[in-house]
Structure formats: C-alpha cells, structure tokens
Target: E3 ubiquitin-protein ligase
Amino acid sequence: MVSLLPPSTQKWLQVTDLYKEVYHHLARYVPKIYCLGPNLNPQSEDLLAQMLLQAPLEWYLCGEDPSTGLAKLEQNNQPSQLCGHVFKVGEPTYSCRECAADPTCVLCMQCFLGSVHKEHRYRMTTSGGGGFCDCGDTEAWKKGPYCQKHEPNISDSCQEDPLAHLSTDMIARCYNVFSIVLKYAVDMLTWDKEDELPPGLEPPDRSDTYYCMLFNDEVHTYEQVIYTLQKAVNCTQKEAVSFATTVDRDGRKSVRFGDFAFCELAKSVIVRNTSRQSKPLRVQVMHSSVVAHQCFALKALHWLGHVIGYSGQILFKYKELNTIFKCLLGVGLERGPEGENSSLVDTLMLCDSKMWKGARNVYHQLFMSSLLMDLKYKKLFAIQFAKNYERLQSDYVKDDHDREFSVTDLSVQMFTVPSLARMLITEENLMTIIIRTFVDHLRHRDLQGRFQFERYTAQQAFKFRRVQSLIGDLKYVLISRPTEWSDQLREKFLEGLDTFLELLKCMQGMDPVVRQVGQHIEMEPEWEAAFTLQMKLTHIISMIQEWCATDERVLIAAYKKCLTALTHCHSGFTDGEQPITLSMCGHSVDTIRYCVSQEKVSIHLPVSRLLAGLHVLLSKMEVAYRFPEQLPLVSRAVTVTVVHSVLWLQIYYYHNVKCRVEMFDKDLIMLQAGASMMDPNHFLMIVLSRFELYHIFSSADCRKRYNRENANKDVVQQNNTLMEEMLHLIMMVVGERFEAGIGQVEGCDEIKREILHQLCIRPMAHSELVKALPENENKETGMERVIDCVALFKKPGVTGRGLYELRPECAKQFNLYFHHYSRADQSKAEEAQRKLKRQNGEDTALPPPVLPPFCPLFASLVNILQCDVLLGMLGAVLQWAVEPSAGHWSESMLQRVLHLIGMALLEEQQQLENSNEDNDVYFNFTLKMCRPGEAPSNTASVLALLENLQNAPHLEVHKDMIRWLLKTVAGIKTMRERSASTSTTACDKDKAERKRKVEMARLRREKVMAQMSEMQRHFINENKELFQQSLEELEASTSTSLEHSPTSSDAALACVGPRRSRPREKRQVVTCILCQEEQEIRADGKAMVLAAFIQRSTVMSKNRKRPPHDPKRYDPLFMHPDLSFGTHTGSCGHIMHSHCWQRYFEAVQAKEQRRQQRLRVHTSYDVGNGEFLCPLCECLSNTVIPLLPRTKSSSSCEQPGLGQWLKTSGQQIKAMHSAHRKLQPMSYHVDLPVPLFTLFRNPYSSTIKEMLTTFGTATYKVGLKVHPNEQDPRIPIMCWGSCAYTIQSIERLLVDEKKPLFGSLPCRQDDCLSSLARFGSACWTAACQPTVQGHFIRLLAALIPDPQVEASPCILDVDMLHLLVSVVLSYGSVHSQDSSGLSVDAVQLHLFHLITVAHMVQILLTSEEVTMEQESGEAERGEEEGACRLYNTLRTRVGSSLPEVGSGWHLWRCVKTGILPYLRGAALFFHHLNGVPAPPELHGQYNWEVLCGYLSLPSNPLQLFHKSLSLTLPLTSNGFPRESNSLIDLPDDYSALINQASSFTCPKSGGDKSRAPTLCLVCGSMLCSQSYCCQTELEGEDVGACTAHTFACGAGVGIFLRVRESQVLFLAGKTKGCFYAPPYLDDYGETDQGLRRGNPLHLCHERYRKIQKLWRQHSITEEIGHAQEANQTLVGIDWQHL
Model:
C-alpha cells in the first residue's frame, strides 16, 4: 500500500524531523502556486494547492487514499447532541423569551421549528454572522434545551471514547500534521516582516517582485479610498470600486504588482493623500513570497476547519479528528513550552489586532468550531482569555476595526455560560479585572478624583466609545443570577463590588452645573459622554442589586460597603457651611445653609442610588427587622442627598425611560428612606429650605403676604414654579408605593400601573407601550404577563396598527400626578380622562386613587400628610386662592393642594375601613383640618377655606374636586361616628342605605326617560310641516334619479353600430380649478384640459424577457398579445383652461430654476421631463389631455352589409394607395413633409389643436423613451395604444376586485377614459392625414389580406383589443374623404365584428385540452355546433397541427371564457367613445346576453363567422383568456424569507454574502441592493441593482421587499423612490421595519392585496410623489444607488 502513496508522503513517513521536511516542501511549492502576477487566478491556484500541498497532507494523515480514509471516519460518526450550526450573515435566529437563560441564547431555524419554543413567546432576529446555535446546551435554556433532532438517546448515556476507533499510528500522524499546519499558519499570519520569511520557509530562488498591499480600516470612507486609488495606481473608477469592495470584505488587497520602487511610489501617494485629516490608510510593500505564504496559511486554516470541525450543515463530520485537534490546542493552553502566553492559541489572541480582517475571521471560525463547541476546552480557553483580558482589551481600544472582527467579541461565547462565568469570577477574579480595566482607560479626572469629560478630543471620544464594550462583558458575566452561593463566590463578588464602588465614586458628582430655574439646559457633548456612561451602567447596577437580593449575607455586606462609600464621597460636603436653625409651626430643626440656585450640583449620584436600591431590598427581604442596627446610619447620608435629588425633577433626560429606574426612581426612594427616619415637620422644613421657599411659609402672616407685597413679577413666577415642584415632590414621596419593599405590592403591580397610566393618555400600539416601559437586562418589560388585566386589544384594519385601550373599570386607578408623566403627558391624560367622564355623565373631578399600605420600614411616611408644617402650607395656598385678583398663586398650585388633601382623606378613610380592635386609627387628618389657627392670627381652618372656595366664581374648574373633598370629609365623619356604635347596627344601616339609594336611582331614571319621550313627541308635533316637506323632497329626488337612469322596459341600449342609442345632447360645462371660471366644452371654444400622467408599464406583461426595442426603428402599430410593455395614462380628474395650465407650468419651471441654483437637490417631480404637481391635489402629472365634445354622427336608415362594405372599402384603399404613391414614401426614420393639400376642414379651435399636439407628443416621448418630435408618424399609434392599454388594465382591475363593469369606476378614471377615447378619435386631425390613412390600411390588412401591404403580422401575433381601438380611431382620417354615404357607426360595427371573429379564431387556435365537468343543456346546442363547425374549418385550413376535438361544449366554453375580457374592454371603449349609457344589468353582476346586446352582437358570436375569411398559419401560442398578473406569492412566516435571503450570495463578489438582499415582488428575483459591487451602467450613469432591475422588469417602476429591514421599497425611474409599510405584521397588528422588536411576523393578505392594487392601478409613481411631498428627507436619498 505504501507504494501507492505520493513520493512526498512516502518521504514524510520515513523522516525523523517531519517539521523540517514539510516546511521545505511548502517553501518550494507555495511561491510557485500563489502570487505570480498582478491578476490572481483563484481557481487555478486552488486546484494546484489541492494537488501539490493539501493532497500530500491528507495522504499522510490517513495513511491511504484520503477519499477512502475520510469516508471510514465518517461512517464511525455519531450524531451530536449539540447543534452548533454557525450562523451566516443575515440568517434568522430565534430566542425564546420564556425559556432562554439570556437573549444571547438562540436557535437556528431547523432546531426552532422542531422545538417546544415555537409555541412560546419568542423573538426573531437576523444574525450578524459568527455565533452558533445553542440547541443541546442545557445551561442556555430553562426548559426544552433539545429539539427533536438533537434529543439525546438513553442508549447514548455511556458515550464511548471517540478515539477508540483510531490506531495509535494514525493518532500520532494527526497530532503531527495538525501541530505543523497550525504552527505554520500562526507563524505566517502573525508575521510582521515585509521582506523576509520565517526560518525554513526561505524560497530556493528569490525574485524581485513585490505587492503594494492596502489594508482595511474603519476610519476612511469608500469614496476616500476610491478617489485615492485612482490617483495612486492610475486605475479607472470601476477598478477602484472593485479594489475598495475587496479591501472592505477581505481586509486587504494588492493594488499594484512590480518591483520595489514601483510599489513604494504607490504607497507614498496613498499615505500622502489620506493623512491630511486623520491617520493614513495602512499600506505595506510586501515581497511576493511573503504574500504567497500568507495566502496559503489562510487556505491551510480553511482546510483544518474542514477536516476537524464544520462542514456545511454537518457538525463534527470527522469527530475523531476534531477531538485530536482540541486535545492539541488544549495541551498548548494548559502549558506552553516557553512559559506564560507561549501557546499557539495565545499567540493568535495576542496578535489579533495586527492581523487583517480576513485572517481574523478564519481563525475565529476555527476556534468556534473546535474549542468553543466543547465545555472542557471552552473552559481552558476562557481561563486564558481572562488572564489576557486586560491586554486584549487594550489592543482592541487602540485598533480601529469593528468589534465583530476582534477576538474580544468571543467573550459572549464564554461569559454568558453561567457555570463558566461563576468559575471565572471565583478563580480568575474576572469581575474585578473587567471593572479595573474599564476604569484604567478613563484617566481624565478632576481634583476630587471624579471623571472629567470636558475637554475630550475626537480621538479620546473614539476611544471612549470602544471602551464601552467592556460594560457589555460585565453584563454578560452578571446576566445569570446565582442560585447557590459559596464562600469563595461571596468573597470575589464583594471584591468586585468594591472595585465597582470605586468606579461609582469617580462618577458621584461628576459634571456639576448650576441649575437655571425656568431656562433650558443645553446638552453639551461632554455632558452627553457622562450621561452615556450613566446609561450604559444602568443594567449593571440593577443586576448587582439582583445578585445581592439572592443572599442575605451578601446584601448586608454590600449595604455596609455602599454606605461607607457614600460617607466618603460626602465627607467634606458640610465643611465651611454655615449652620442654621429652621422654625415653623412650633417645630425647629438644625441644618446647613445651602443655596441651590447658586451652588453647583450634579445629576450623577450613582452611589446614593445604589444605596437606595439596597435599602429597598432590606425592606423587601425583611432583613431590616432582623438587623436594625444597620439602618440609622442612612439618615445622615440621606440629608445630604436630599440636596441633590430634588433638583432634577424636570429634566427630560433624567425622566427618560431608559435611565429613570436607576436615576429618578432611586432618588425618590432615597428621599422616602430619609423622610421615613425623620420627623415629618423637620423633613418638610429642609425641603422648603432647599427650594428657597422657607422665607415665604415661615412668616407669621404668610397667608396675607401677597396682599401686602408688591414683588417683582419674575420672582413671583419663579416662586410659583418652585412651589408647584415642591408640592409635586411631597405627593411623590407619600404616594409612590408601587415598588415592592416600599409598599405592600407584588412585582407585577408596578408594571400594571405604568401601562394603565400610559393608556390613560390615549389608546396605544404594542410598540408604543414597550417604548414607554423600562426594559431589564434581557430586554423584557414584563408587559405581556399583565396587559390583559388592564387593557383590551383592538385589531387593525388594512391600514393603521392594533391598539390597546384601557379597561373601563381600571380608570378609577388613574393618578393625575403619576410620577413618570412629563408635563405634556399629564395635560393630555387630564384632558382625556375629563372627556371620558363627561361622556359617561359623571362629574369631572379627578381624585387621587386608593393606594396600597406602606411596608413597615416606610410606614411613617403617611404622617407627612397630617403634620403641622404641611397643614400650614396647605392653608396658606388656599387662603391665597380666596383672593381672585392677587395673581400670586397659580391654578396648578391649587390643584396640587387639593390633590394632597384628597390623598390625606383617602389614607384616613382606608385606615378606618381596615381598622379592628387590634390596631387603632392613628391618622386623624379630618380633625386637624377642622382646627383653626392659634392666636393671635386666628387663621381659618383648611375645611373652612375649602367651603369658602366651593362658592368662589373664579374657581369654576376646581368645583367638582372641592365638592368631592367635602363629600369625602362628611363620609369620614359619618364613619367615625358609626364606629362608636356596634358593628352589627352599622352593617344593617349600610345595607338599608344602599337599598334606598338603588331605589332612588331607579325612580330617577324612569322619570328622565319619560321626560325625554314627552319632549320628542312635542318636537314632532310642532314641526310636522318640516317633516312632511323633507319626505316629499326625498321622494322627488328618488323619482328623478329613476327617470334619468335607463330602464329595462326601454328599447335595448347599444353602444356601437347603426342602431346604437343616441343619448340627448347636453351642454357639458366645467370649472377651471385655477381661475374658477366656467367653460362649455366646444370644438371651437377654449381648450379645457385634464392633468394626466403617462408611464410605461409592464403590469400586464406575459413576457418580461423580451429584449428592449430600438426606439428609433421600433414600429408600434401592432401590439403583441403578450403585452410585454404598454403605455398607461392616468389622471387625477382635475380640469384647467389650457392657457391657465401653461401659465402655471411656466411658473413651476421658473421656480425650479431658481431653486436649483440655491439648493441643488431633487424635488418629487422632474420639471425637465415635463412633470408637475396638480395644482389642487398635488398628484404627479406629466401632461394634460384635452377635453373634447362627443362627435356628432348622422344616423342613416339603411347601411350595406359586410360583403358590400368590404367591396367599398377595397376600392377606397386602392384609391388611397395610388394617392399616397404620388407623395414621398412613408418612413419612420425620416420626417414627413407637410402635405400639399387638405381635403377636410379641421373642426377644432387653435388652442385645442395645440393641446392635441401636446398630449400626443408627450405619449410618444414617454412611451418610446425618445425626444419629442411633433412630425413623427408614430404619434397617433402611441396614443391609440395608450387608450387600449389603459382600458385593458382597468378591465382587469375590475375583474380582480370583483366589481361590475359599469358604475364602479371613480369619476377620475371615468373622465380619463372618455377623454382618451375622444382624443384618440380626434388625434389624426393634428397629424399628417395620408400617414394616418396608411396606418388604417396596414391595420385592416391584418384582417383582410392586401397584396400591396408587405409583412402583415400573423393573426396570432396581434392583440385584438389594441387592433380594434387603433382601427376604429384611425378610420376618421378615411371617413373625412369618404363620399360613399357610409356612416361611421356602420363601419365601426363591421370592424368590430371582423376583429371579434379574428379573436375567436385566435382562441380556438391556441386552446388547450382542459378537462371540465360538462353542464350543457339544450339552450347551448347551437353554440356548440357553431364552435365545432368553425374549429373544423380551421383544421381544414391549418392542417394536422390542430388536434381533433370531439366536444363542442368544450370548444364553446373556451371561446366564451376567452373572448369575455375582449368584449368587456370593447364595451368600455365604445361606451366612452360614443357616450351611450350602459344598461342597468351591467351595473351589477355579469350578464352575457346583455353585454352582447349592448355591443350589437348576437348572443352566439359564432354566427358572425364567414367561410370566406382567409387565415395564415400560426406562429406562436398564447392562451386566452390572459390571466391577470399578480405580485409573487410570499410565505406566511417572515423567517422563511430571511432564511432564503441568508443563502443568497452577491453575484459579483465571488460568493460573498449580500449585505442588503432585496426581493423583486413583481418577478421574484433576489438582488444585491445598495452595494458598489452590483452597480451597473444605465444610460451613461452607474445605478444599483434594484434601479437597473426596474428598467428590465417594470419599465422603470419597481416594487421590492428589503428582506433584512422588513421594508417595501417603491422605485420609479432613477431619482424617485419611497419606503412603504411591509405586508408582514406581528401579533399586535404592527409592522417591524428594521426588525428591531423581533416579534414573529406573518403575512397580512389584506395589506399585500393593497400593495398589489396600487401596482395594478399604476399608482406606484403617484404614491412615491405623495410620500416625497409629505417627507422632504426622501427627496435627498440617492435612490439610483439602491
């Protein structure tokens, strides 16, 4: 067998120093395979590398033919319990919101569909690439860790050693190969010399060839790199774009090949051009042999990855080799031969920042598929990672590559494994290392040691952004709370907490500012940096509190440490401050003087807030009652914190939902903790002092001060604002009890209350509610658990979103002063709730809600409501409010006072209701509020003041609230009196009272109803005449409408032919929207025009692959039945004088010229292309259609039959042929001369002629994409084609929407069709008459062969409706010279009959055998026989190419269904051309006989058939009827689309994943959008893949779905586009554009139909125009690059 081995392999098996031999082999062959010239050839290189380099290694590895050896290994493979599927960029990932240990635990699509989690609440996202599926990892899931595929077998419980199948020789060979290849790869990828190679790899013969290698960075833009390369290496822009794309994708690219000097020159130019504003691009001049070995090193790592790990969808394809490789790496990790950090893994990690992007990606992938797939080796790797953590992060901070390309990004794979994270904390002190590394990078401090962000340079700001990733690592470590604590874990966690407190101490008090009352606080960049740091640490602080909550010993120790840290922070706070004594209402307290408005204060108080959080935990876990000796220490710290906390209550950022939990809420808790340990009077006096209001309330005659004092208005306004804030603060301190540990509530009560108060503002969508609620570290709000208790869900319609509405029974829990309301929210909620109460007939008072009781630790807070100082303040404000003209109090202040009184009354009421013999009622606010002031002032009591205010006329808005308060006071007095009597009596009385009230309410309701019915009767009697008159008018209007509508009893209506109905001539008078003048539509009058929009269309195309025609040579006379493209005309229906429109358009042009000079950006319309917006509705338009009167035709009694007419028309055509021969021959390429004679009198006025030319030229220009040419003979053809195509598209639209043919079109479409048809019949008057006659001759020759007309098309190659419209509308030019007395109506009928027969022939020639159930009766026997006769005649003419068909019923069905769209289109055409009203039967369901009668056809159209009709042989086949085109079918589940897009590769980037895969909804093509790689040239301009596709697929209009953004994209032309809501909705009826929320998305068929309707209506361009007008930012987007 050895003789079969390659020579090199035989040699390797015999040598002692294999390492030296392999290196010698590589040194000899690698430079001969790779990097031999400027243009690399990957296919050739890969083939040679496989033969000369990889094959010998594989032979050595297996000891035999690799195909045999590796196959044997694969047979021994056992399925793995771990999925380990590595995600591609953009691939869908699923995380279960109920079972995942944290949000980083994800499943691939296959595992998810086979798991229990698909029935749970889950989140769907797209992967950034690189992570792997966690199916099978028991630590990643709380339940359901396995899918069906990876479920472990019981028989697999005792897993055998994977290496048992391998011989010792093979194991040794594997070790040898892996160690040599890995060492070679590491040596080369970390090699930093540009002109030398490592020992043993020097090439035998060295050439003087170098590469100028450009490396990627994240500093310079694409444009900068492209511009620099064009200058440096003298390449074209396309080449530069290709270079830049490769550099961005792979991390480096050679941009020049040659000798050293040649490459060095290019390097100097690149460095010089990119170093002006930032650091230069990294460029190296490298010897070709070095580059060659680095290329093969990458290839070697790829090969290693293939044989040891991951191959396609199969994980551990060769499990034994994987095990050997992991052992090799593990040995290196455990002990390096040269001491610390000497293993190959360490070398790769520590050199990571020096490598280019491509190299990093390859070795990261290798680690992922080997070390990180096995917990044992993952642990070894994690230990080394933790040991090197500080250095790795320092390298990352200095590097400029994104984190996804750094080895530090692998931290998520280790730190999120709970067992690993705990091990690293206890053994490697990881928590301390991360925090210390973070603090070390923030070196700017002030004199007090606090962080200072004031003078941050751009470089430092960049560094600060990168350092923030360490906070992410700390979050991963803490994300899973421990269930069991060891002493070592406690010790290391508290050590980490010490380090964290050092970080928080550096933040405590940073960025201090002086608060400007009443002024806006600007947010400077440095302020932003400090705030960013605070927000990033929010979740960390919450998680540390959660860790502490799981262990009492840790909680107490953490509390002590935090208290010590806070004491240290404020140790010098009172130094030098003047002590003062405050006295008020008989109470006094000692404090320090502190002037808030002049001293600097800081919003950053993280140490205080952490202490507040821990204090609540002490209360919640009842530790406070067991260890009371810890608590008194808080009071001193709190007194200081009060100074800071009350200052920031109105700042937006402080209230922001993302940070309020750890800022605003914790400040409030700190105040509550302090207040609960102080005398309430002392607390309020300190608060008054800090708000600088003490001097107002402490004076003996404060209630009269405003009457005497004539203070400065600004000072009074400022004091009023401060009083309002202070009263709000007191409400919050006493009223906010919904945090577990402060009030006796459950955890979910807090979130319920948040949702309730958001819904009190207005009904909200799910996403709005989620944004308004704080998220935890797992991005969960807890909303889904409680939402159904407080809200009802209302499903969305075709537009809009699903909304949650507040349950009516929850409205009573509304608190007007909810602490998370902004002022705007509060006013909206107040208005909404008052409106609701008025609707329900209730009074509009908004009393405070009933609150839960406090926990024992905070129970004393209620005493604030009944303390003397507060009562004094309340009395003072009420006294001021009695004086209407004082102006020194505000309504808002009074409202807050009334709310506080209400809170106190409800507190007393609750205590009375819950009282029993064991607990006495200690709260007696009603007694205190009845007490008047003491001598000498003898001020009125609070109750007396309320009674006075009840009747004050200037307080009308507060009367409901005052009444409620007085009523509550009376109720409490009654309760107190009742409590004196026995409880039994009280209960009986209560029942009797309730019964009496119910009876009274019933009697009152009956009385009101009787009054209402009596009033109604009186009103009708008094206004009897009025009622009678309106009934008569109604009857009259009904009778007139019936009179005008044709009835079935009249003569049958016909729209074509000599017997067509002739409606009464009515003057048509319209109003110009610009000048408002009325004008009659007359042929010789002023021209009136409709704003219109012409566009090329492929909406009905059955062949999108037809190559584009040459506009100069294309003959559009005959439309092919596949309708590959057409010209559609639409209108908004608004009418103008032609001269008014011209003036308007000239003004638009002038304005556009001025705007372009100033702004140089696009608008939503292109004036250069004749576009404008309708002056009334701003609908996009590009021309105008003239309104024309209906042509008058004389009805002649007797008209010749078809045969006679054919003879007459033949003679006319011969005469025209001879007349035309005398003129210059017609050509579509040469401008025709103006004819020398005119044989008809043009009936139209000059302005109408001008407008005929205007619309005709516009249709020609847009339809053919050519420059305007008024003399081109194709102008009338394009106009007729546009008329026919528009009719066809409207007919299909009516069918698709199941609407009747007549009566269902909107007015604008009706007017547009009438104008188009009448324009078509008149447009020949503005063209050369012989030319139009020539068109008629050629059109007729398609039906009746004419030997003088060459190249007539086959009957199967002509769309018959287009032919009908064109031949009927062109006949006018012939009829104008006709002296035979033929009427136009008769000719129209003959032409229609001829074309109808031709269409039936088309249908029969192209019909296919379809099995249908026969339902024929006697009534259709004649039709069936006629069909058979016609078909047999065709078989006789055509020959054996038509199969024999026995069933006449089947043929008749084919004809009837196939011809129906044509007949409906013809009915629309003749209806609008001749103005004949449609019979009422056609306004409803489809009726075949009535339709045929309206078209003057027999109900069996086969009777029209004449044997004399000539036929040509069929050339093509097109089935009839043509089915309506639809947008492509989309999958119901959006993740199927994401999965499809993730496997889509960029067609021009060598298999690279597309960054923005975009699906064409018209044809289903997937495109690589918004990338340089797929740009193509279109009409001399580079455009993106989507724009190029729109011109190939949609004639310039496109509808796309951007898969990764879940966003629909509309494009029209190169400069217009807009984004549109996608048809995919989540369970809450909302779209998720950008896939930010991650809720499962499913197809909403109604919304998709709406998009389809826009497309079928040709309204995409109009939609874009409206969107761009509404949102000007859309105009500035370069849509052509998408």
